[in-house]
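Hey, quick one: can you model this chain's 3D structure?
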Amino acid sequence: MTLKRNYLNSKNALVLTGGGARAAYQVGVLSAIAKFIPRNHGIPFPILSGTSAGAINTTSLACYASCFHLGVKKLEWAWKNFNISSIYHSDSINVFSHISQGMLASFQADYANKNPRSLLDNAPLRTLLNQILDFNRIDNNIARGYLSAVSITASSYSNGDSISFYQSDGQVQPWSRVKRRGEVCQLNTEHLMASAAIPMVFPSVRIKNQHFGDGSVHQLSPLSPAIHLGAKKIFVIGVDQPKEPLHSMENNPHPPSSATIAGHLLDSIFADTMHSDLERMARINETLKLISAQNRKANEGLQHIESFVINPSHDFNAIATQYYYDLPLPIRLLLRSAGVSNDSESSIISYLLFERNFCSELIRLGFADAMEQEQAIRTFLDI
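Sure thing. Here's the predicted structure for all 383 residues.
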């Protein structure tokens, strides 16, 4: 019981970024951290903030906040056992009928009810989330003191704002800043579907009177939700990895294909804003050192916040090419028509490869990377 109270008072926050299938790496890191925590103890992160696929991992942890080991084990089991058909339709009939319906929709009248258009249909993901997540457990864990707050960020296509939907213990007030705000709500599957709707790849999701897509799109400050929820320390599991040559011809001076450009855009959406926000927070921390304690107390809006960032030690794209043929044939044909193949420079494959072999490889990588920094992680989290 004492340990639970210490975790709650620690104000440690976990921030999980997006990245499609790349989010399996986060599970490996969390699995390593679970090795440092005694069994049957609560989550060491009373504040949780997730975006895109990271939002799904975040919500799963929130549902099992009373037992961190159990939550991580369930996450790991899920990532190691589902396949692409669990996330989006990958058979020939559904893939090409979905594309055909999207093309025909462009000829519909403006007053007709239209379904959101996308390259792939991720309806199976909604079914999976409804099966494996019990959202009522979030409120229970907050009431029992295992969790302080959890937020899921999505991007509004209606007004361009970044919206962080959150549940908390009642001590967090909704916030509003330029192009971003926090809205208290009862989290459900639709918030996850909206946050994980990769632009153009998966369909947008309507919540109330707005249409939402992947939370990383308009998220100029990915650390903001955790800070507004009361974080004093922020542990970030990122997806920014070193670039490794995919093949010997990669450095030839040729113009990038449209698929390569699309991959770079996705990489920018999921990684670049985190770098900027961490740099901004570091500058604020350095500035606060120059302000006297009395003046700092007078301006409670600024406070020193520690951070710990762990990123992959290997290139996800290079790993993905090894499992390219795990993709179902209809998906390979679809990607091939867009210029994506097993020897292309595009990173799109690593976002869509929700297959157990690739995901298991990323989990192993995340576990190894975290174990190499065991002492640093223990010190930061005080565990």
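One thing worth noting: Strands lie at 12-16, 47-51, 149-156, 162-168, 176-177, 180-184, 205-207, 210-213, 233-237, 306-310.
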